[in-house]
Amino acid sequence: MDQQQSVSKSNASVEDVRVEKANLYLKLNELKAENARFLTITALDIGNDLEIIYHFERGSHVVNLITRSRKGDPIPSITSFFGAAFIAENEVQDLFNAKFVGLNVNFGGKMLKIEAATETTLLKPAVGEAPTITRFFGRCRDECPAMVNIPKYIRQIAAGDPEGAYNTVAERAPIPAILGRVCVAPCQQGCRQERRENNIQIRLLKRYAADSMSSLRREIERSEPTGKRVAVVGGGPSGITVAYYLGMLGHEVTVFEKARRCGGAMLWGIPKYRLPKDVLQEEISARFDEAGVSLETGVEIKNLDTLFKDGFDAVYVSIGAMKPNRMMVEGEGSPKVLDSMDFLTSVNANNETPDLGDEVIVVGGGNAAIDAARVSKRLGVRDVTVYYRRTETEMPAVLDEIHEAMREGVSFDFLAQPVKIISGERLTLSFQCMIPGEPDSSGRRRPVPLEGAILLREADTLIAAIGNGVEIPPGFGLEVDRRGRLIVDENYATSRKGVWAGGDNVTGPRFVIEAIRDGRKAASDMDKYLGGRGLPEPALDMDELVQKPTNEEKDLDTAKVLVRELDVYYRIKNFEEVELGLNEEEALREAGRCWRCDWNE
Amino acid sequence: MSKQLVEKEFTVFPFGPQHPVLPEPLQLRFTVDEERIVDVVPNIGYVHRGIERACELNDYRRNIFLCERICGICNFMHAMTYCESIEMITDAEVPERARYLRTVWAELQRLQSHLLWLGLFADGIGFESLFMQIWRDREIVLELNERTAGHRIHLSTCAIGGTRKDMDHELISRYSSSMEELRNRIDAIAPVFYKDKAVQKKTVGKGILPKSRAVALGAAGPTIRGSGIPQDLRTLSYEAYRELDFEPIVHDGEDAYSRALVRFDEVYQSIDLINRALDQMPKGPILQKNTVFPSGVAINRVEQPRGEVVYYVQGNGTIHLERCRVRTPTLANIPALLEMLMGYEVPDIPTIVLSIDPCMSCTERITYVKGGK
Fold it and tell me: Best interface-test mutation with A: which of B369, B370, B373 has the largest number of A CBs within 10 A?
């Protein structure tokens, strides 16, 4: 054996020799004479035949002896030439059900200690069956509070069926067009591609599906009328959800709304540049039309007894969190100190343009503060500054919104809390500077006053955006906790029989998608109470056929589509929608990037 | 092997699959004439994991991690062999620096594998203190592994078209100083292996594998080199071995002692190879990304601590492989082991069985059944 000869490891040093089964021994004799060393046997299953490849080492070359045998035909054993082959031959015998003749030490198909080794593998049935397929919800769907079937509607969009996608969303969240614009999209945080900051932009895909609908009013059938009557107090997102699902189940639903239009916090709280009000109204009235919901606006319910007296069988309370928190600061009563809720309502819902002067200070760190600052900027205010008592990282507002506000020219100042307001021709504000202290119950560091550090600022208007509390009219006769929020059980039933509650008046101010989750769960329980069977729970869809992600490799690796936006200089002059959504080509590409984590073989 | 044994009364007793000497399940069914072994039948297949089948279901790029798990001890070599096979099929170029890095890590694995085995062997012949000392020295290598990859055993640094990780100056100097320390420690125990009478009494002349039979039985690795045959795939000059002046280590005692000495000398050799590779390592990129799906057949062989591993990889131009067959060195050495045992006495069994360095779990990664087509 010439071992010193240096051969590059390429296919050139491998010699393939094809032999008939009858001539196998001749060739083996040659190899034996050349002092070849047996390596192993590889068997391949090719239709009706088995391809048996004997690997030998001769010199430093590999010699492959390739022969074929019909399945079931006996194969001559080579153990009489190369005794070491008996393990490899037994292996082939066990695994491919081949028959070797003259095999010395024949384990008879029992070398591998697995019961019925030739019938099953650890992975999948060997004979005649398709691979088992496992389905998951997908991490995006797990993250979604309303458990919308996100993987399915992404696939529907990729397959060019945006209407189907819209219906898929509406199965669990009735307002896709609105959610496509305002949802905080926890699903996108769950996306596995988030780790390389390349997540699927699920919210924009939802918006694309809604925008592709010729009309948001769909032709769908309601269930047979049940004759039961349901009152929904408050027409916010969770009220709309309850009204729609119960209406579709055949109940007669009436929504009582205090304001002139439905929408709740989505109407007054979310500025027009994020959610155009015509989209909001079109989608809500489309849902109410489909479900046969009657709407009474301008009606304030003070007592639930009157509703039961009027013949309603069940009541859903979703009056939201509408009591502004006070700053508890001297001089707060000045007319130049506005509350963010009043301010946003006057601009967003009532189309007013209040005069704010040249300099506006916003106090607070939530989404309402950012909205108030961005709206002020659009009303022509020169300088807008947001003061927050903690630091940037602890701001509860959505990070993207903060960045957009910065791009639009809103300034921020952190670790400052107002302590005194002096009204004059302009407002003079004194701020106490803070430093971060020990962590509190929410895990954020509690700001502590920095002794003697006082900041003086002048402004024309101050907007307080320090959150809203819940105030339930005492006439409702419902149990509340110490912060005034309604107490409900896991099905959102309140302490009073026949009354359910959900949304902000249970959780405090939260996101739209969470209000929808509350509403759907409550609607399911209310239907059971009214004699129905409830709404379906999220279930794994085993029938849907998913294509293996094989040929779309190119799509799976591409970067995310950047959404087109209005130019900053243009957008701060008006209230037009900032995000322009995806067009068809972009949406198909974005949907094609999905890794289909809900599918597994 | 099984012969007609009728005239005399023999005892048949099983050795394994659970036995203090065997870390992994292998059963040898001995037929003994009083104390003398007259027949032995191996019984394997206790630890199937179906990896060959799983390799076909996986994305071929994720198979790297699967192949790494065929064997814990030589995990990097498995990944390297697999990656090389794919590179051979797709005609991919591997950057120069990556070839050196692979060589360094492959030799590092050989070091820790040989030290592990030398310890087990010492334990097998009843030399507890030697066992503990060698395993303590092995910690140096494991610590390097941890510094390189964050794991003590699994490196996971190989990728198709190069390597996943690089070494900076600090790590390279750490490698050099650790190699120096390891050499000093090994120097201290060298006299035990070369001069100690107790070690020699237990091993010299046990488990003879004649030079004439070694090739016919298909033995591999230190087992065949212990019988005087310079069979070592590193002479094929893969990766960076061409530039490192590699000469296989051969001992011609044909017995368990020779096989132990081959491994012991290879510890020194690996230290030298690592040092040389670190000195000569060029600068440059470490990974050339491969975007072609493999289509074709590759047969690839790499010298592992226990001998040659053979990969037969067949790709069909998709993301899944058509077939991925692995033959690990222990499987090749079992027929030789049976021949070695013949004629020796029962107390010699542990020494002889250990002398091939059996690693059953990698041997039995198999279970391949294809159906439905």
Answer: B369
User: Does the predicted TM-score (pTM) go above 0.80?
Assistant: no
Do the chains contact at A122 and B369, CB–CB below 8 Å?
Answer: no
- Taking the C-alpha atoms of residue B320 and residue B334, their distance in angstroms, rounded to an integer, is 32
A127-142 pLDDT, tens per residue? 444 455 667 788 899 8
The DSSP result for A305-358, as a single string, is HHHHHTT-SEEEE-----EEPP---BTTT-TTEEEHHHHHIIIIIT-------S
Query: Using the beta-carbon criterion (under 8 Å), do A55 and B310 form an inter-chain contact?
Result: yes
Residue B228 counted as domain residue: no
* Residue of A35, A39, A55 to mutate, testing the B interface (most B Cβ within 10 Å of its Cβ): A39
Q: pLDDT, tens digit, for every residue of B273-289?
A: 999 999 999 999 999 88
Rounded CA-CA distance A60/A70 in Å is 32
Chain B hits for A45, CB-CB cut-off 8 Å, are 370-371, 373
Chain A residues whose beta carbon lies within 8 Å of the beta carbon of residue B218: 37-39, 82, 84-85
| Residues A93-102 pLDDT 10s | 877 888 888 8
Distance of alpha carbon A251 from alpha carbon A524, whole angstroms: 12
Query: Residue A437 is part of which domain span?
Result: 323-468
Among A37, A60, A128, whose Cβ lies nearest the Cβ of B371?
A: A128
Q: How far apart are CA A264 and CA A232, in angstroms?
A: 13
Sign, CA dihedral A499-A505-A508-A514, equals positive
Cβ separation A83–B216 shorter than 8 A: yes
**φ, ψ (nearest 5 deg) of residue A208:** -60, -45
Kindly give the residue spans of alpha helices, DSSP state H, lying in B165-243: 169-195, 197-203, 211-214, 222-225
Residue A573: phi, psi to the nearest 5? -95, -10
Contacts 24+ apart (CB under 8 A), B157-160: B157/B76, B157/B101, B157/B105, B158/B64, B158/B68, B158/B76, B158/B79, B158/B80, B158/B83, B158/B102, B158/B105, B159/B64, B159/B83, B159/B287, B160/B61, B160/B64, B160/B83, B160/B86, B160/B87, B160/B92, B160/B290
CB neighbourhood size of B286 (10 A): 22
Q: Which amino acid is at B79?
A: A
Here the CATH number for the domain that contains residue B309 is: 1.10.645.10
> Is position B158 within any domain?
yes
The shortest CB-CB distance from A112 to any of B45, B230, B312 is to B45
Q: Determine contact, residues A416/A434, Cβ cutoff 8 Å.
A: yes
Residue-level pLDDT at B1: 44
DSSP 3-state of A400: helix
Cis peptide before A549 (omega within 30 of 0): no
Which residue is closest to A103 within chain B, CA to CA? B2
* Residue A298 forms part of a structural domain: no
**Where in the sequence is the domain holding B287, given as residue range(s)?**
51-205+234-247+258-363
Element (H, E) at A55: strand A49-58
Number of domains in chain A: 2
Q: Which residues of chain B have a CB within 8 Å of the CB of A80?
A: none
In a domain, B42, yes or no: no
ipTM for the predicted complex: 0.87
Find the radius of gyration of the CA atoms of chain A.
Answer: 35
A95 three-state secondary structure: helix
CB A90 within 8 A of CB A42: no
What is the residue whose two structure tokens read 């039948």? B41
DSSP string, A556-578: HTSPPPPPPB--HHHHTTS---S
Q: How far apart are CA A112 and CA A331, in angstroms?
A: 86
Is B222 within the bounds of a domain?
no
